[in-house]
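To the wet lab folks,

You asked to see what we're planning to order before we commit. Fair enough. Below is the target structure as tokens, and below that is the sequence we designed to fit it. If anything looks off to you, flag it before the synthesis order goes out.
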């Protein structure tokens, strides 16, 4: 199955974004997702990125970008300034998990979060074979990874329940980017969640 820009989670995220919406993309990399949303959905997009090379690439991609560290919060953004705040494949690299989720839902009506599922069967098999997993969704060796934590779909859903966050939608994908419907915590390599505050 071919996916937009080679990232199946981007297809899921794009489907959740309405034309003309305001989107903040945290850890936006070179701005590929925002560029796609601007071109296909007519969104008003802003990216936040810490890496110098990615910031320059995003500027070349004509993305409105702010260089910043997510660990320092999102205080530069007003409450409810965005319709969607996206954190794509970045949550596992953030030290202050609850704080970033709270901040996302302070500055946006919805938070969209995607992350690799550590309980995916191939990851578990790697651990049982005595090695940390390396895959498309977990592409780094243990000694060179930006990831500071590993967690599963069930772990994330328990955190959402603890924080009183509402899971509006969830999409779970395998390594080929196909939707997984059964045994998602075991068969899903990547998860994408759409969250709101409890009313």
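Sequence we intend to order:
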């Amino acid at each position: 199955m071919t996916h937009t820009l080679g990232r199946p989670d981007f297809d899921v995220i794009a489907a959740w974004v309405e034309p003309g919406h305001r989107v903040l993309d945290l850890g936006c990399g070179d701005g590929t997702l925002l560029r796609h949303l601007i071109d296909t959905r007519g969104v008003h997009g802003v990216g936040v990125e810490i890496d110098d090379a990615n910031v320059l690439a995003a500027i070349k991609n004509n993305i409105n970008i702010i260089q910043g560290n997510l660990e320092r919060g999102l205080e530069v953004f007003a409450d409810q300034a965005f319709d969607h705040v996206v954190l794509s494949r970045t949550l596992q690299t953030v030290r202050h998990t609850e704080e970033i989720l709270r901040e996302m839902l302070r500055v946006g009506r919805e938070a969209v979060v995607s992350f690799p599922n550590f309980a995916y069967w191939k990851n578990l098999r790697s651990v049982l074979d005595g090695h940390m997993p390396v895959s498309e969704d977990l592409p780094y060796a243990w000694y060179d990874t930006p990831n500071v934590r590993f967690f599963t779909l069930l772990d994330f859903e328990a955190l959402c329940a603890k924080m009183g966050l509402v899971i509006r939608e969830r999409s779970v994908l395998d390594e080929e980017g196909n939707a997984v419907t059964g045994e998602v915590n075991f068969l899903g390599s990547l998860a994408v969640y759409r969250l709101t505050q409890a009313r």
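Structural context that might help your review: Strands lie at 22-26, 44-49, 65-67, 82-88, 108-116, 165-173, 190-197. The chain has a mean pLDDT of 90.

Thanks,
Computational group
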